[in-house]
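Archive record
______________

***
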Amino acid sequence: MIELNNLVKNFGDLTAVDDLSLTVEKGEFFAVLGPNAAGKTTTIKMLVGLIAPNSGTVKVCGFDVQEEPMEVRKRIAYVPDFPFLYDKLTPWEFFRFTGQLFQMDEEDIQSRTRDLIPRFSLEPYLSKRIESLSHGTRQRIAIVSALMHNPDVFVLDEPMVGLDPHHQFILKEVLKERAAEGMTVFLSTHQLSVAEEVADRIGIVHMGKLVAVGTEKELLDRSNNAALEATFLALTREESDVAVERQLHQG
C-alpha cells in the first residue's frame, strides 16, 4: 500500500531524510517514532505529496505520488498535528464540502458521518463556526472529515495533540477498527504508549534515517531491553553517538 524507496530530502545543507526505504502493507497499522527534528514530518509530507523528494520515489496503492497525484489523493487521507480548516464554515458545512470534493452525494455524506459524529462528540458543535472551537474539537472535525470517503490509506502526524484522554481512546479504537477492515494506517507519534498499544509494526527514525523497524517484540529483542522506551533511547542515543564521532573525525 505504501512504498518509500530511497527517499532523500535536503533543505540547503541539511539532510532531513536520508535514503529512507519502507514498505507498509494493506491493513497494517504502522507507527513512526523519533526525536524532534528526526525527519518524521518531512517523510510524511513527501508521502502525501506536499513536498517533493530530492531523490527516491513514493508510491501509494501502486501510484507514484509525484507522477499520479490525483490517483493518490482519491485513496489517501491526511491529518497533520495542526490541521487547516475553513474557519468561517460550521463543522457540518465542512463535512459537506469535503464530501463533495470526493464526489459524494448528500446521502453518502449523511451515512458516512452518522456514526463518526457522535463517537467524536461533535453534535453540540455542528452549527457553530469552526473559528470559535477549541484545538481539540477542530482536531476531531479533521479526523471525521478525513475518514468520510473511506480512504485506503490514512496518514496522521501527531494526531493525539489536543485530544483529551477520552477522544484519544476513541481515535485509537476507530483506527484499529478501520485497519482490521483493510485500511492502512501510518501514524507519527511522540507517545511510545500509543505505538505499543495499537501498532502492528513500529519504525524509529533518527537524523533522517530509519534506524530500526519491526514489531515491538522484534525491537525489544534487538536491543535486549524489556521496555520500548529503553529501546528507543538506546537506538537514538547510539545513532547520535555515531554522528558525533563522525563529526569529530571529519574535523
Observations:
- The CA atoms of residues 207 and 240 lie 8 Å apart.
- Residues 240-251 have pLDDT under 50 and may be disordered.
- The chain has one domain: 2-86+151-250.
